[in-house]
Amino acid sequence: MTTKKFTFHLVFELIILFVLLILSIRYGANQNSNGTVFNSIFNYQKGNLDQQIIRQIRLPRVIGSAIIGSALACSGALMQSVTKNPLADSGLLGINSGAALMLTICFIFFPKFSTEQTTVFAVIGALVASVLVFGISSMKHSQMNPAILVLAGMAISAFFTAISEGLALITHLKQDLAFWHFGGMSSVSWSQLTNLGPFIIIGLIVALLLSPSLNLLNLSDDSIQSLGKNTNLVRLLSLLCVVILSGISVALVGAVAFVGLIIPHIARFLVGTDYRKVMPLTLLLGANLTLCADLVARTINPPNETPFGIIISLVGVPFFIYLARKDGQNI
């Protein structure tokens, strides 16, 4: 029965993904017919302006939204498994802020850097933030303290964000950097997807391959030791995936929080705690959430675009409060 339930949800989310892809390609600042969408993909004519908009702007944005949504959701699932903390998320634990700070530094001191070069710095920033957060949370303890982990993440996030905004104000880049603080998919291009997309895909594949081992992390540390299992490599690979996926995502669309917090909980609610089922569903749900949020951001107030991160936060903040009240005694 469990397998049938998993298959049902997987197929259902795939159908939703397909529908959202079509809607996202068709609707935006200007609307297009189904025929125009079809011809843009299968019978592209360079002289047709509507087809150019779909092919060169809408398609990379839509594909990028789906891939990055999966990356952010995957990061959250990995973080929650490794830390055994239901509130863990790369945005809430300061990792995204570390990446955003390095992006700010790049924009100020190395304005001619390419997207690929700034992405390397973003990944380094995510790595530094994760080392600081996990180092603080495990200080004076052999194991990470979940409560201190959340507090350390919030403190590091606030610290890095303050530095980023301070530098932006001093250098008069506040307006230019607003995009990266609120998040948005408008800058995603084919060249970015071609150069950085494969790294995200590899990270997602590694996460799927780690899924069976992640089930071990659900056990208590004493139980893991009694089984004679060494999960250090699994934890290391998981955190490496989080750093890479989060760093690249921030470099492309800004510091978007809450996707990694919300989606793994929904996946576990639907199919249980087996990560062999949770992880694939998490990737699909993450893609669907970001596609839906991006579609709303583009169509809610045309021709102006609402910041993508605000749409996510409208769902994420109440969900965070709910989880804090529900699982507060466990953190």
The CATH architecture: Orthogonal Bundle
How many beta-strand segments? 0
Count of the domains: 1
CATH names the topology as ABC transporter involved in vitamin B12 uptake, BtuC
Name the CATH class.
Mainly Alpha
- Element order, helices and strands? HHHHHHHHHHHHH
| Approximate helicity band | over 70%
Nearest-angstrom radius of gyration? 20 Å
**Overall average residue pLDDT:** 84
Number of helices: 13
End-to-end separation in angstroms reads 32 Å
Helix-strand category: mainly alpha
Ranges with pLDDT <50 over ≥5 residues?
none
Identify the CATH homologous superfamily.
ABC transporter involved in vitamin B12 uptake, BtuC
Describe the overall structure.
With 331 residues, the protein is mainly α. It has 13 helices and no strands. It has a single domain (63-330), classed as ABC transporter involved in vitamin B12 uptake, BtuC, CATH 1.10.3470. The protein is 77% helix and 0% strand. Keywords: Cell membrane, Membrane, Transmembrane, Transmembrane helix, Transport. GO terms for molecular function: transmembrane transporter activity. The chain crosses the membrane at residues 6-25, 62-79, 91-111, 118-136, 148-173, 193-217, 237-266, 278-300, 306-324. Belongs to the binding-protein-dependent transport system permease family. FecCD subfamily.
